[in-house]
Fold:
Amino acid sequence: MNDMGDGTKVVIIGAGPAGVAAGITVARYGLAATVIDEHDTSEAHSADMPPSISFRPHTLAWGLFPDNQVALYADERAESLAATAVVVATGGHERAVAFPGWTLPGVVNIGEVCGLARQPGGLAGKHVLIAGTGPFLLLAANEVLENGGEVAALVEARPSVAPVELVRKFADSTPTSDMNNPEEELRRRGVPIYCQSTILSAQGDAGITEAVVTQLRPNGQHDPDATERITCDLLCLHAGFCAAVELAQMVGCAVEYNVDSGGWHVRHDGEMRTSRDGVYVAGRVAGYAGHEISIASGRLAGLSVAHDLGAISAAEFTEALEREKATIDALRLSSCQINTYSAMESELSSTITPDTLLCPEEGVRAADIDLAISLGARSFNDIKRRTRCGMGESQAHICGPLVSAYVAHQTGVSVESVGLMTARPPIRPIPLIAVAALDQQLSQS
Ligand SMILES: Cc1cc2nc3c(=O)[nH]c(=O)nc-3n(C[C@H](O)[C@H](O)[C@H](O)COP(=O)(O)OP(=O)(O)OC[C@H]3O[C@@H](n4cnc5c(N)ncnc54)[C@H](O)[C@@H]3O)c2cc1C
Structure:
């Protein structure tokens, strides 16, 4: 591997658009880069990554430690990689929406619908109900129609669907077909569109067969008398993304919450440096929404790494920095709009009943959270201690945002004040035997 001859290594966690752009940038300045991803991402394969970059797919980064040791797990083996600089570009996951029946088979998120669309005939003949909020709903409807499915209805929690300019900006970077006016296209094809509405419940035995749509009042509560039943065999939900901040949080990087940045994200100095020396962020983790801005922030992170490690001249850095910052500034407004358009956390909690599962992995229902609240719990960590929510395999990926929004809705406090779950290694379960072997290996060396 081509490094500076002094063992300098840049480890980039995440091979989405942001991580790949960061990897290509640091490699351009002669730094040894390792790009890690727990999946085998198409982004990494379609990008022009120089051979000097070591790409390690199917590798989970399960811990990040203060001396920039990155703990990895792949092929049933744990290992520790020493890094001079780390770029955390771990993206995010879709925010769940809860109501009675949301855990039935056939209730999916948009990522899963896109997965089905890629399988030949995966969506053919399906009656798909699309619900939630934001520009993604119109993109998903398009995806379903293009792949032989039917859109039973589109249900948007806001008073209107996302404006066409926003959908277009979001779709620009993907090969989605006719994006002239997706709302008009849906209406032309007779798809019912319900605005200021949400899902009250889903029914079915082996899988969803029907959902009830209800109107949201301006005060964010739903109207139990304004309902309609819709037959469907797939219910696709989307309510924005949550950034995967755990690794950055674990190493002590400051995180902050604001709606413009999609909720929780890692604080950075505008040049992608976090509050911890040697740790940088890019993409969704840094609060950006969209493909192009993620790439630009990845390049910016790569530049800052190259600058801080002395691999780029001051003049070259300044010039390239201004270029990337200008790109980000030009894209910032649509990134903020995408984030704010999808922010309906508290409103989407109004259809939760005491029996609704909020942490399916640990079997925690809304009534359990209510009990914890009545005993004084207000923070996520406190709720977790009293109910076990967040202790399942996904480590609060699914229930974290749901429970925080529910606590905010029930108590009137802000989602921010409920806080995040404390992040501890491993961020996802890995076999103890692998960690023990690593421990032995480290103590021998
Ligand atoms: C189905 C779908 C469709 C989308 N369509 C559009 C669109 O049309 N237009 C648009 O602008 N945006 C779209 N987006 C959003 C867009 O993907 C994001 O804005 C962008 O991908 C964010 O880039 P990123 O590099 O920050 O994160 P991501 O692309 O999410 O990449 C993060 C990577 O990090 C890896 N990772 C995470 N944690 C770990 C770990 N601990 N160890 C190892 N690897 C890890 C993940 O496997 C992932 O590959 C879409 C998203 C989805 C899910």
